[in-house]
Amino acid sequence: MEAIILQFLNGLDKGSAYALIALGLTLIFGTLGVVNFAHGALFMIGAFCAVTLQKILSLSKVTIDPTKTDFLGNPAKVKTPYVQEWFGPDVGAFIIDWSVPLALILAVPVMIAVGVAMERGLIKHFYKRPHADQILVTFGLAIVLQELIKYFFGANPIQTPMPEAFKGSFDFGAAVGIDPNVIIYPYWRLIYFAFAMVVIGAVFAFLQFTTFGMVVRAGMADRETVGILGIDIDKRFTMMFGLAAAVAGLAGVMYGPINAPNYHMGMDFLVLSFVVVVVGGMGSLPGAVLAGFLLGVLESFASMEAVLNTLPGLNQIIIYLVAIIVLLTRPRGLLGRKGVMED
């Protein structure tokens, strides 16, 4: 029972990342009809927003402390972050410690700008082109963005530590009446799951209860009719591309403490996130979220030692096996809509 609960929690953790990336992918496909293979790169850029802010906050002023010496007997050089000099040692240390959550503030405008620039500068020229052309051009863009990150930040993973307050683990055993110290789970992974639920809920609420969201949903159903009513639906769809980029970027920011950002992390999630979208149903936002969590949990259980001893390597292929089974039994996916990519 303890192992099952732990693997379920691991599945929610992975499923949160899958669901957030797939949600953004589905927003883009549902509004613009574009198969965006550069979406994983947006997740990567978000993670490096946190890296960038951390580097900025770590910029230090070097002074000489005559009361201390180094190992050669020379006066010691002391580095004091500018943030601590400007705001005081306590406030400055707090800002540096909370660099990852603070990076969410930086990531929102950056990711919206990147998304809008990507859509206006490149992707809008491929709306009426075959999906194969869209895949090729966006995959090429993903490679370019990946290499730019590698050039500026290097090839090695860069640690983005979580705030000190969230280091450590939560004792689920003591909380649910099982023996203590049996089910231990990191606080930050629980925070990531809660964060994912908040973002997913906010996106659905925005689409469901705001006038902007209602117009977008109407445009997804019948773009021509909405245009006849005098609404600039293209402008709203561009803004939705920016929103989808922001969702992917925020997911990347918060994922940094779980898995140190590196230049190929976008590609690592790209194929899996597309499988999630296909399993959930192309164009279906609820399907993307449902499939994300479902496949995350299944992948986690397939990673159990007892399972791997019986079926070695199952955790590497379980998502694709599920995709095959779902598409053989439900060709449109779990919650796919009729007519999407069926022409």
TrEMBL record:
Signal peptide: none annotated. GO terms for cellular component: plasma membrane. Keywords: Amino-acid transport, Cell membrane, Membrane, Transmembrane, Transmembrane helix, Transport. GO terms for biological process: amino acid transport. It is found in: Cell membrane. The chain crosses the membrane at residues 16-35, 42-64, 91-114, 190-216, 237-258, 270-295, 307-328. Its main location: membrane. InterPro entries: ABC_transp_permease, BCAA_transport_permease. Coiled coil: none annotated. One of its GO terms (molecular function) is transmembrane transporter activity. It is a multi-pass membrane protein. It comes from the Bacteria. Belongs to the binding-protein-dependent transport system permease family. LivHM subfamily. This is ABC transporter permease. It comes from Pseudaestuariivita atlantica.
